[in-house]
Amino acid sequence: MRAGRVLVVLALALGVSTGCAGRLAEPGQPAGSGVEGRTMVDGGCPVIQEGLPCPDKPLASRLTVTRPDSVEAAATATSGEDGSFRIPLSPGRYVVRATNLTGAILPAAAPVDVEVPDGRDVSVTVAFDSGIR
């Protein structure tokens, strides 16, 4: 059982979590470079009325990152219950695609184009449409 505790401590030290971990940085890949952000769904209010807020809500989702000219996944991750995620990536252009975890058509998100700079994260919000009007 001691080995299990060591693995948990090692995973926590490396920043791995069950909720929002993408793939760990590969050898030669900058650890401080990637995409981070939140996956959010609109409030789903059929009629927005003044004084009655209808805020966006976090949505756990599956994220797939590809190069713009490819369908092969460069990385995958699952955002946490709070919608947060971080995916280590080499600098370059990518497309982030998100799907809800239920497998239903809605809520749905449009792909997000990102450019990851050298040595730092780019921040994005992946917006899901609830389909409620």
What is the CATH third-level topology name? Immunoglobulin-like
CATH class: Mainly Beta
User: What percentage of amino acids are in beta strands?
Assistant: 35-45%
Specify the helix fraction band: under 10%
Biggest sheet overview: 5 strands, mixed
Q: From the helix content, strand content and strand pairing, which structural class follows?
A: mainly beta
Topology as a string of helices (H) and strands (E): HEEEEEEEEE
**Into how many domains do the coordinates divide?**
1
Radius of gyration using CA atoms only = 17 Å
Q: Report the strand count.
A: 9
Described by the principal axes of the CA atoms, the overall outline is elongated
At CATH level 2, the architecture is Sandwich
- So how many helices? 1
Mean pLDDT: 81
Residue windows where pLDDT falls under 50 for at least 5 positions: 1-30
CATH superfamily: Immunoglobulins
The separation of the N and C termini measures: 52 Å
Structure report:
Strand 3 and strand 4 form a beta hairpin. The chain has a single domain (19-129), classed as Immunoglobulin-like (Sandwich), CATH 2.60.40. The protein contains one helix and nine strands; from the N terminus they run H-E-E-E-E-E-E-E-E-E. With 133 residues, it is mainly beta. The chain has one helix spanning 2-13, and strands at 34-41, 57-58, 61-66, 73-78, 84-88, 92-100, 108-109, 112-116, 121-129.
